[in-house]
Amino acid sequence: MTSIKLKTPTTGEYEQPTGLFINNEWVKGVDGKTFEVINPSTEEVICSVHEATEKDVDIAVAAARKAFDGPWRKVTPEQRGKLLVKLSELIEKNIDTLAAVETLDNGKSIAMAKGDVAAVAGCLRYYGGWADKIVGSVVDTNPDTFSYTKQEPIGVCGQIIPWNFPLLMWAWKIGPAIATGNTVVMKTAEQTPLSALVAANLVKEAGFPPGVINIISGFGKIAGAALSAHMDVDKIAFTGSTVVGRQIMKSAAGSNLKKVTLELGGKSPNIVFDDGDIENAISWVNFGIFFNHGQCCCAGSRIYVQEGIYDKFVERFKARALANKVGDPFLADTFQGPQVSQLQYDRIMGYIQEGKKEGATVVTGGARHGDKGYFIQPTIFADVTEDMKIMQEEIFGPVCSIAKFKTEEEVIKLANSTTYGLASAVHTTNLNTALRVSNALKAGTVWVNQYNMLHHQLPFGGFKESGIGRELGEAALHNYTQTKTVSIRLADAIF
Ligand code: TXE
């Protein structure tokens, strides 16, 4: 099997197989295809990896089915938990390599990549803890029957993840699926396959039986589509664009009605009231939009500021954004690296042009940073109106839109006036305002006086067109179990 020697600015040389990880083995794709992986900081090719096509999806699904119907069934919940904890420990042990590979492939700063890897370990450990705490209930319907429910695994789970948090999305999906006793075929994003391949080594080292966790690199329209339409996949979990989310649902409906969970886009409102602590609010607004270069489904991209502090806010926020260090993601103090790909770079620059054309005020940014790599200046648009594209559509880059509001009623209406409903935030020192607005916002998460503070114990997911189901927390376990009712007659027949 092909392998590459990977060397990053923060790690020594390291050998990594680049095949498909099926049945705990590295294999080539049946069609023998490979594709190139690009370093977004330099636009140079890092390496090529093997590409899964429909036939490989069939092979991976068959491996996952065999494991699910065979040895995995005999593994006790406690053992499943131990395996996840072991994997978590190995992730922690390999944090430097995993973070460096993530930075190389995705472009996120090394400090943020380390944060992601630590969160991966936390997430896997958390779900390891759940594995032997999944319980049913006894339901007392009448004295002549004894009835109980069981939470059983769904079966073979297809999981399709995006490129913005390659390893973290891997953990969010694998953790609850494995804790509940399913098997997995995971397709990584074609832009960022590498960190999951490094993690696949650790899956084997942790001692998972063959076929339980299978990881394939490949393209959405080929391997992703095959997985979502597969007749032997019992459940599909997807994180990505709303457009593809709809296609996944159609594929599920048109094939075997597999269960579907979706974590899609957003255009999340970040509301700053006159009485908010302005310096604190600016720090969180800055982090809310510019963290991970704006490539977050929950990015706080619509910023509503109350009229009394609007001018002051815009001026100070500009100074804060200009202080974000943009550049080489391997430098310890870099905050913002490149966007993930040429395609994403072009999309974002298109939105920036559109914002300028529509007449929004460019407070700062609005152009490329440097002349190599997919870097974009942190960009703030002010005086943005509701009808502008930059206020309505997900940009998924370091670009935000600010608008002024007068009253609480008005801002609630504005905040809710989108088809999305993933996240939101309120900055105020008034407890009543915080609670009233949190109650009124139609979003899966409301942050008060903070932003982007996700935690594996807290459910995360979308209202409206931002998704179906919840990831993280106890809620994610429901995505991966199905209820069985057993009812036993204790008395003689009545018919
Ligand atoms: O997403 P895609 P893209 C949003 C964000 C971004 C836009 C486009 O607005 O600008 O989507 O990004 C796989 N069947 N988000 O084009 O195409 C694909 O291979 C099955 C939000 O990268 O949705 C990858 O693994 N799978 C977001 C994954 O879907 C398919 C994260 C995501 O790719 C497929 C990323 C198909 N037909 C982008 N087509 C979030 N919610 O966090 C593609 N894929």
Automatic annotation (TrEMBL):
InterPro entries: Ald_DH/histidinol_DH (IPR016161), Ald_DH_C (IPR016163), Ald_DH_CS_CYS (IPR016160), Ald_DH_CS_GLU (IPR029510), Ald_DH_N (IPR016162), Aldehyde_DH_dom (IPR015590). One of its GO terms (molecular function) is aldehyde dehydrogenase (NAD+) activity. The active site is at residue 263. Its EC number is 1.2.1.3. It is an enzyme of class 1 (oxidoreductase). It catalyses: an aldehyde + NAD(+) + H2O = a carboxylate + NADH + 2 H(+). GO terms for biological process: acetate biosynthetic process. Keywords: Oxidoreductase. Residues 26-486 form the Aldehyde dehydrogenase domain. PANTHER family: ALDEHYDE DEHYDROGENASE-RELATED. Belongs to the aldehyde dehydrogenase family. This is Aldehyde dehydrogenase.
